[in-house]
Amino acid sequence: MSKQEQHWEKTRNLLFITLAIWFVFSIGIFLFGAEMQESSIRPFGYPLTYWFTCQGSLAIFVILIFWFAGRQEKIDDEFGFTEREGDQ
Amino acid sequence: MIKGKFIDNLPKIYGIYTGGFLVFIILMSIAEQAGMSAKMIGIFFVAFTVLIYALIGWLSRTLQSDAYYVAGRQVPTVFNGMATAADWMSGASFVAMAGGIYFKGYGYMALLVGWTGGYVLVAALLAPYLRKFGCYTVPDFIGTRYGGNLARFCAVLVLTLASFTYVTAQINATGRIASVALDIPFNIAVYVGLASILMCSMLGGMRAVTWTQVAQYIVLIIAYLLPVFWISSNIGAGFFPHFMLADEVARIAELESQFGFAKNSAADMATVPKGLAQITKAHSSVNATPWQFISLAICMMAGTASLPHVMMRYFTTPSVRTARRSVGWSLFFIFLLYSSAPMLATLSKISLMDPNLATGIIGKSITEVQALDWYQNWNQAKLMFVSDFNGNGLLELNEFFMKGDAVVLATPEIAGLPYVISGLVAAGGMAAAMSTADGLVLAISNALSHDVYYKIINPKAETAKRLIVARVLLVIIGFAGATIAALEINDILGSVIWAFDFAMSGLFFPLVLGVWWKRANAAGAVAGMLLGLGSGTAYLVWVKWYAGAGFLGITTSTFGLVGASVSLVAMIVVSLITEAPDAATQKMVDEVRIPSGKTILGKQ
């Protein structure tokens, strides 16, 4: 497998992991909105589903993007595909 | 004080700007103490900030196409994040979202999740690859990746429809704010808003829009957060509302069950001005089915990843790596406002409802409420209404009506803050609506001038001529938008949601598969765009104007699900039954997938 194919395979795997986490916090948990709302876990005292819609999911997305960017940069570095001065 | 290149001095320049704005707020509050009228304060706030943006727009004027279309590709990561946040957070986010949550509760909080979650898709699926492509516009990517003017033209079509729907909502919002703050009729205020928008974008294109958007972000975030923190500590809810409003949320639920959600008779409702809403949904309980919530969230997320005015912000960063990180910063700056919107809704509602607070009006005598200054102002603007339906002389929860779009603007007054805060909020709302309208009008006119005029009609046109065409189109589109906005077809939030559904129907899969599926070809992309947009629009028309029953619980807010599904199927089927893209195209896709090396389109 060429260097480029390996790079793309790793990139694709990272995409799947990222999308899986994204799916859980944007769609998955809201399948159980009513059940979660009754949960005894109450972040800062807010009902759980309410908290996820106000803050929880949103904050997780922010962290997820930065984590994703860091991992992707590592993959690019590993295969020597990072941009150099004057590339653009 | 400022030496060297503009780009190197950005933190200093915007630091001074922010300090200057805070000083202006302090001066205005001193002026208020000294007896300046509320009306004058409103005028000063809106006029002063708009003039600053116009000044930045004028200073950023340019005659170079790279600067006009992509701000010279040198916008630093964090500043691009701020500009994107302002570009993104429209009148809908600033003015209407908290109001939507206020009246509809959980069902509308899907917007918060959708409008943030979409950025994960942007970062992972699209932004870095489109940056590597080196295009000027989104149709530029479609046209080059798939090849052929037809694909390019279809992309322009979808872009124009989605962005135009969106921009009418923004001009509507600027008009609404200008009419309240400057006290002029709405259909004139719309053109005042338009003039301000054009001043920011006409001379400098993307470069001017970038630097005004950063300035607008600073104004809008101060304007949104200050009242939230202030009201929270004023009513003793805690100095950091985001972590401390659990008791208030519980208290609202208690008051809701105490007052009840009584339904008004049709005869009573006929006396209420059109478009005003009453509180009928519980504030914090889960009152939508999982599908209602999720379908709306999916549409907003996919729409986010297909809206060209957002995507083109990532064409302006210096590199692929910074484009990726910039998406993270964008979402961080958006998060600051979005996580505050439900807090604002909570604080606004408790200020209004709780009889223990001095500001609570539910349960007070109707004549007392009607005598309130702020009630009279907002009632006059046809944005608020009370009526004693049951004739008991007291204001009940079901006898209070407000337009959702007015919640954010009216909250400082309802909560008894000095008028200077209301002026600030008006300036913030204006900034939010203007920044988005700028980005949208520019996206449309760039697509028409670059993709239709330059690439299809007259490929030999010189730069100067192209930029003149771009500017003329900018003005025409602006006026068309303002004219339609003055008709008030849909409310702000409703139109914005439609724009997302349009964009998602036509562009989501052609964009994503363009990077992630080498086999996708021009015929497939054209089929995907046209059938996607066509079926989504047909569904909307059927349900909205022909009283169609719809299917699968898909509403006029989520018709993008129909469009995008059709688009995906059409694109795959048509791509597979027609010839695979040639070797050159396949190689181009390979190049897009790695950050290093020259951009595909190079310097244009």
Write a brief structural summary:
The complex is a heterodimer of chains A (88) and B (604). Chain A has 88 residues and is mostly helical. Chain A is built from three helices and no strands.
Topology:
The complex is a heterodimer of chains A (88) and B (604).
Chain A: H1 3-26, H2 33-37, H3 48-78
Chain B: H1 10-33, H2 38-59, H3 65-70, H4 77-88, H5 91-104, H6 106-133, H7 138-146, H8 149-182, H9 186-201, H10 205-234, H11 241-244, H12 246-259, H13 266-269, H14 290-304, H15 308-311, H16 320-338, H17 341-353, H18 366-370, H19 373-380, E1 384-386, E2 400-402, H20 407-414, H21 419-457, H22 463-485, H23 492-516, H24 522-545, H25 560-577, H26 583-592
Antiparallel strand pairs in B: 1-2
Q: Can you characterise this structure?
A:
The complex is a heterodimer of chains A (88) and B (604). Chain A has 88 residues and is an all-alpha fold. Chain A has one domain (17-78). Helices cover 68% and strands 0% of the residues of chain A. The two termini of chain A are 28 Å apart. The model of chain A has no long low-confidence stretch (mean pLDDT 87). Chain B is mostly helical and 604 residues long. Chain B has a single domain, classed as Sodium/glucose cotransporter (Up-down Bundle). Chain B is 71% helix and 1% strand. The interface between A and B is large, with 50 and 58 residues.
From the helix content, strand content and strand pairing of chain A, which structural class follows? mainly alpha
Distance between the termini of chain A: 28 Å
Mean pLDDT of chain B: 85
Question: What percent of the residues of chain B sit in helical stretches (DSSP H or I)?
Answer: over 70%
CATH topology of chain B: Sodium/glucose cotransporter
- Bulk shape of chain B: globular
CATH architecture of chain B: Up-down Bundle
State the CATH class of chain B: Mainly Alpha
What's the rounded overall pLDDT mean of chain A? 87
> Uncertain runs of chain B with pLDDT below 50, 5 residues or more?
none
> Helix and strand succession of chain B?
HHHHHHHHHHHHHHHHHHHEEHHHHHHH
Supply the number of structural domains of chain A. 1
Strand order of the largest sheet of chain B: 1-2
Strand content of chain B: under 5%
Biggest interface between chains:
A-B, 50 and 58 residues
Q: What structural class do the secondary elements of chain B suggest? A: mainly alpha
From the spread of the alpha carbons, the general shape of chain A counts as elongated
Give the CATH superfamily of chain B: Sodium/glucose cotransporter
